[in-house]
From TrEMBL:
Belongs to the peroxiredoxin family. Prx5 subfamily. It catalyses: a hydroperoxide + 2 glutathione = an alcohol + glutathione disulfide + H2O. InterPro entries: PRX5-like (IPR037944), Redoxin (IPR013740), Thioredoxin-like_sf (IPR036249), Thioredoxin_domain (IPR013766). Residues 2-168 form the Thioredoxin domain. Its EC number is 1.11.1.27. Keywords: Antioxidant, Oxidoreductase, Peroxidase, Redox-active center. Transmembrane segments: none annotated. The keyword Membrane does not apply. Thiol-specific peroxidase that catalyzes the reduction of hydrogen peroxide and organic hydroperoxides to water and alcohols, respectively. Plays a role in cell protection against oxidative stress by detoxifying peroxides. It comes from Pseudaquabacterium rugosum. This is Glutathione-dependent peroxiredoxin. SUPFAM superfamilies: Thioredoxin-like.
Length: 171
């Protein structure tokens, strides 16, 4: 399992872009994790699935609500990862009103979850291999804090916990 001090896996996630910009078309776009995290402080959290009860009622909304406080604490970007496709992540972000405050990143094949060792096998519940629920503070691609939830829990990966860690890291 990934640990504090480790670097994020050098792989590609996908993000649905709903507005065309220079050099970026509408639709799923690749996000090179190494390049996207370079020289930035990232508040990264992962959920087992988009549109699922705890993820939609508590986890993502907490990060949306605390987005400005996280930025004030030195966080450049907030990333939400889930083992879903970019279309689902884009729709979930729109449904939750993230409005650019949180990057909704798809780990469609669970490659990131597997590379970090933070998988959750929900095959018995018909959901297949998913990501565990966790949060981490990443500085220039390196994990500085890591908060992994126990099975069925939502106690340490919330936005307020990561906000406190970002504030402490900033000094």
């Amino acid at each position: 399992m990934i640990q504090v001090g480790d670097r994020l896996p050098a792989l590609t996630l996908t993000e649905f872009v709903s507005v065309a910009t220079e050099g970026c078309a509408i639709g799923p776009q690749p996000v090179d994790v190494s390049a996207a995290s370079a020289s930035k402080t990232i508040a990264l959290f992962a959920v087992p699935g988009a549109f699922t009860p705890t993820c939609s009622a508590k986890h993502l909304p907490g990060y949306v609500e605390q987005a400005q406080a996280l930025r004030d604490a030195g966080v450049d970007e907030i990333w939400c990862l889930s083992v879903n496709d970019a279309f689902v992540m884009g729709a979930w972000g729109q449904d939750q009103g993230v409005d650019g405050r949180v990057r909704m990143l798809a780990d469609g094949s669970a490659a990131f979850a597997q590379a970090t060792g933070l998988t959750l096998d929900l095959t018995a519940r018909g959901l297949g291999l998913r990501s565990n629920r966790y949060s981490m503070l990443v500085v220039d691609g390196q994990v500085r804090t890591l908060n992994v939830e126990g099975p069925g829990q939502f106690e340490v990966s919330d936005a307020l916990t990561l906000l406190g860690q970002a504030q402490a890291l900033r000094g």
